[in-house]
Amino acid sequence: MAKASKSTPKRAAATASVRIDIGISDKDRAAIAQELSKLLADSYTLYLMTHNFHWNVTGPLFNTLHTMFMEQYTEQWNALDEIAERIRALGHYAPGTYREYSKLSSIEEPESVPEALDMIRLLVKGNESVAKTARAAFKHVDEANDQPSADLLTRRLDIHEKNAWMLRSLLQ
């Protein structure tokens, strides 16, 4: 036990001694990492909601929704790693607990299992929320001339706006 506590300061000291010099200031990297942390929290919350709905959907659209939800949560799961790794590349720790996500996320989760059409409505709203979070992060990314983060945000916007459109089409 004592050994573990001694290694923590060494890790912090080792990390502190290696300065990041990628052409983005410490202040800008911190601001971008904060915005990407919000994106990660929204993305994880949406992932979890989509997976939950995949498991629990019922009704005449079962097969369509079950398959669509699986495609969407699988894509979202893979995106989580990309977002977290960008935060790490900027020199910050990525949030990784439900507590952190609940503080950072703009998405409200349902308290029970909704009906299929309500699931669709909630996922439209969730995808739109992730898109808004990604769009809001562009201010910091553009100011810092951070092309890798801009590319990540553009891809996430494209996917979430497309998902919202496809889900919205089921309600018309």
Detailed description of the structure:
- With 172 residues, the chain is an all-alpha fold.
- The protein has a single domain (27-106, 113-169), classed as Ferritin (Up-down Bundle), CATH 1.20.1260.
- 77% of the residues lie in helices and 0% in strands.
- It is built from six helices and no strands.
- The radius of gyration is 18 Å and the shape is elongated.
Summary tags:
single chain; 172 residues; mainly alpha; Ferritin; 0% strand; Ferritin-like_SF; oxidoreductase activity, acting on metal ions; DPS_DNA-bd; ferric iron binding
The structural domain count equals 1
**Large-scale geometry:** elongated
Structural class assignment: mainly alpha
What about the largest sheet? none
The helix content, as a percent range, equals over 70%
- Contiguous runs where pLDDT drops below 50 for at least 5 residues: 1-14
Task: Supply the CATH superfamily name.
Answer: Ferritin, core subunit, four-helix bundle
Q: β content, as a range?
A: under 5%
- Mean pLDDT figure: 91
Please give the radius of gyration in angstroms.
18 Å
| Cα separation of the termini | 60 Å
Q: Do you know the CATH topology?
A: Ferritin
Contiguous helical run count: 6
Q: What order do the SSEs take from the amino end to the carboxyl end, as H and E?
A: HHHHHH
Instruction: Supply the CATH architecture.
Output: Up-down Bundle
How would you name the oligomeric state of the polypeptide chains in this document? single chain
Top CATH class = Mainly Alpha
Count of DSSP E strands?
0
Pfam families: Ferritin
Family: Belongs to the Dps family.
GO molecular function: ferric iron binding; oxidoreductase activity, acting on metal ions
InterPro entries: DPS_DNA-bd, DPS_DNA-bd_CS, Ferritin-like, Ferritin-like_SF, Ferritin_DPS_dom
